[in-house]
Amino acid sequence: MSLVFDVSANPQAASAADREQILANPGFGTNFTDHMAKTVWTSDGGWGDAAIVPYGPIQLDPAAAVLHYAQEIFEGLKAYRHADGSIWLFRPDQNAQRLQRSAARLALPALSVEDFIGSITALVEVDQDWVPSGGETSLYLRPFMFASEAFLGVRPSKEVTYLLIASPAGAYFSGGVKPVSIWITDTYSRAGRGGTGAAKCGGNYASSLLAQTEAASRGCDQVLFADSVEGKWLEELGGMNVYLVTNAGELITPELNGNILEGVTRDSILQLAADAGLTPVERKVSIEELLRGVGDGAIREVFACGTAAVVTPIGSFKDLAGEYTVGAGEVGEVTAAIRQQLLDIQYGRAEDRYDWMQRIV
Questions:
Q1: Which residues contact 176 (CB under 8 A, 6 or more apart)?
Q2: DSSP H stretches of helix in the chain
Q3: For residue 160, what is the enclosing H or E element?
């Protein structure tokens, strides 16, 4: 039986004037809606106590397992307001299934696809006035679950809390889409064989932060990680998958190997490749091949992809040996076309041939 999220209205909800002021310039991840979804799992009773409650601080016992053993996972997706005022999700079933895979890897309970989407629908229905309109604005949705049992033994938690919060988001590239620069680290690894690289858990992002700091110190916007065994195979950025556009008409991305997060945007782009006149290819790509191809022009465009930015053009790479400019260092035609095609589907401006969009309001 699916969960029913009973609504407990927030008596201190933002006024219409305050909300509109926030929506006029929402930024990203700094403002939150009036409510959040919550349900708690126990080893004895399964999922229960589902509700939409006022957004606010959560109370945790100092011995809560998540604080000591990092048993937690999360997702990220968006709600889009279309021109007619309706609100839609982009492939939410894929996020739900990835949350289940992450849960299995972190020894957490699975939340059904139906209840995952049900929590989003219930929250967005209550807080629908927080979904901005116009441009590339959206309502960013952050579902997450964590070990909430107060217990210091090292074992899977017998109590787990699932929460869903929402944050209005402005355009990722507020001043227009611009290429980013990438530092190729040979010091740090994002994930190792048999580790949690394919799961969406906070530890993966925490381990990338020092490398990100290294990139910033080298004058770069982001960091690229190689594999941890040989240190030669391209895997992903700190939080985005990577694509290469070749002169041979291929759209290449590193194959999934247990270390790489299986991005929803990544999968969508593979399906859109044919529409862009490209052949999608998933295979191992060495750092040497990447830099050689960029240098001799065999690789004419490189971009990263993820939920927040959708598609981010890469203008240059840098390592200890030097700097390598991709093409003219500008936004490539294929990159721009794929980005626009995805956005047009998400915002209802183009035909949804793949049945990716789901209306919730």
A1: none
A2: 16-24, 65-69, 92-105, 113-126, 202-206, 209-217, 264-272, 287-296, 333-346
A3: strand 159-169
For the chain, what is the domain count? 2
Domain final residue pick, 123, 138, 169: 169
Domain assignment present for residue 356? The answer is no
Q: What is the dihedral of CA 178, 80, 74, 8, to 10 degrees?
A: 140
Angle at CA 172, nearest 5°, toward 299 and 223?
A: 50
358 lies in some domain: no
- Structural domain of 321: 180-346
Q: Is residue 278 part of a domain?
A: yes
Q: Is residue 135 part of a domain?
A: yes
Query: Strand pairing partners for 167?
Result: 140
- What is the C-alpha separation between 63 and 158, in angstroms, rounded? 13
**Model confidence over 252-277: pLDDT tens digits?**
999 999 999 999 999 999 999 988 88
Question: Model's pTM, two decimal places?
Answer: 0.96
| Residue that is last in its domain, among 113, 138, 169 | 169
Please tell me the predicted confidence (pLDDT) of residue 94. Answer: 98
- Residue 174: is its pLDDT beyond 90? no
Find the mean pLDDT for residues 41-69.
Answer: 98
What are the structure tokens assigned to 293, written together? 């191809």
